[in-house]
């Protein structure tokens, strides 16, 4: 009986050691993979105009992006679309408040239209990129030129909104700052998405 207990103790100790080693290996491998994926994002963002924005906005998706330029471009589009929707909602809310001067209201309505167009164009682009599992890659290869056109149009719409609120149309300072903050953010995200799509297209056969 004593020998059996000693054997059980030794076996338990060995199992504990193996579990610790296994856990360490898993943790180490996971950390290394995450670091590699993060490095890929940092390196890829060098092709964009707003590099810090690019890295900060895409880093949370590192384990989805991994080392795929397709997933990188898709994630950038998704982030840009999310930002455009938030901006469009904010502008629409401001327009609905009814507290703006006539000149301000006109500029905000114009901005509401252009941000809505931007959302539509980014949505169309993201759908053309295929689903997150990577299906539809062949379709993407045929439509990257269209996607570039749509994303470029979305960026133009965002720039048009900024021009409208800063074009001397009587826009009050508080309103101008509130809208500009929203639009500048999505314009930077969209610019980065376009740059990453351009890289993807240039690498396509």
From TrEMBL:
Record protein name field: (wild Malaysian banana) hypothetical protein
Range of residues in the leader sequence: 1-27
Localisation: Secreted, Extracellular space
Keyword set includes Secreted: yes
GO terms for cellular component: extracellular region; plant-type cell wall
GO MF term list: enzyme inhibitor activity
Keyword Oxidoreductase tagged: no
Residues annotated as domain Pectinesterase inhibitor: 36-196
Alphabetically ordered keywords of this record: Disulfide bond, Secreted, Signal
Record family assignment: Belongs to the PMEI family.
GO biological process: plant-type cell wall modification
Domain of life assignment: Eukaryota
Listed SMART domains: PMEI
Organism: Musa acuminata subsp. malaccensis (Wild banana)
């Amino acid at each position: 009986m004593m020998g059996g207990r000693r054997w059980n103790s030794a076996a338990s100790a060995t199992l504990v050691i193996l579990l610790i080693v296994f856990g360490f290996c898993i943790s180490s491998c996971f950390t290394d993979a995450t670091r590699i994926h993060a490095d890929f994002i940092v390196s890829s963002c060098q092709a964009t105009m707003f590099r810090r924005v690019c890295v900060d906005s895409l880093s949370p998706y590192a384990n989805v992006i991994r080392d795929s330029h397709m997933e990188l471009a898709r994630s950038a589009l998704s982030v840009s679309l999310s930002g455009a929707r938030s901006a469009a909602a904010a502008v629409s809310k401001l327009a609905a408040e009814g507290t703006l001067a006539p000149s301000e209201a006109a500029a905000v309505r114009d901005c509401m239209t252009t941000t809505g167009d931007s959302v539509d164009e980014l949505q169309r682009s993201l759908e053309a990129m295929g689903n997150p599992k990577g299906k539809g890659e062949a379709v993407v290869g045929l439509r990257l030129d269209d996607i570039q056109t749509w994303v470029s149009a979305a960026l133009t719409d965002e720039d048009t909104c900024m021009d409208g609120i800063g074009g001397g149309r009587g826009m009050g300072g508080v309103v101008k700052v509130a809208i500009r903050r929203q639009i500048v953010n999505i314009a930077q995200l969209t610019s980065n998405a376009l740059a990453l799509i351009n890289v993807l297209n240039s690498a396509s056969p």
